[in-house]
């Protein structure tokens, strides 16, 4: 159960990364999707962004969070959860 939630959250982070590559019209149909992705992922990405500096214009905090979630997922799997 927890592993599935972590996998889903990782997928949502990847969706946010991909959406960030394209300009989103604030009044367009994808604006609400963009808002939801931001609201769901920002609780983890915001603090990570404050800790991990950008490399030039590239924000690597999503990569760090995905690796951390993978670590937690493996840790929980090894504990039998």
List the helices and strands and how they pair.
Blueprint: H1 2-20, H2 31-51, H3 61-78
Helix pairs in contact: 1-2, 1-3, 2-3
Can you characterise this structure?
With 81 residues, the protein is an all-alpha fold. The chain has one domain (2-78). Helices cover 72% and strands 0% of the residues. It is built from three helices and no strands. The chain has helices spanning 2-20, 31-51, 61-78. Helix 1 packs antiparallel against helix 3 (61-78). The radius of gyration is 14 Å and the shape is globular. The N and C termini lie close together (8 Å). The model has no long low-confidence stretch (mean pLDDT 92).
Gist?
The chain is mainly alpha-helical and 81 residues long. Helices cover 72% and strands 0% of the residues. The protein is built from three helices and no strands.
Helix content: over 70%
- Which of globular, elongated, flat, extended, rod-shaped describes the shape? globular
| Largest sheet: number of strands, sense, barrel closure | none
Mean pLDDT: 92
> Could you give the count of β-strands?
0
Number of structural units classed as domains = 1
Q: Please, how many helices?
A: 3
Strand content: under 5%
- Give the uncertain stretches in residue-range form: none
Q: Measure the end-to-end span.
A: 8 Å
């Amino acid at each position: 159960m927890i592993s599935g939630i972590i996998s889903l959250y990782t997928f949502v982070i990847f969706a946010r990364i991909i959406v960030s590559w394209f300009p989103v019209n604030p009044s367009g149909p994808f604006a609400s999707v963009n808002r939801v992705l931001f609201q769901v992922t920002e609780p983890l990405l915001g603090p990570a962004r404050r800790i991990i500096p950008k490399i030039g214009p590239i924000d690597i905090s999503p990569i760090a969070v995905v690796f951390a979630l993978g670590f937690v997922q493996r840790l929980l799997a090894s504990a039998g959860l």
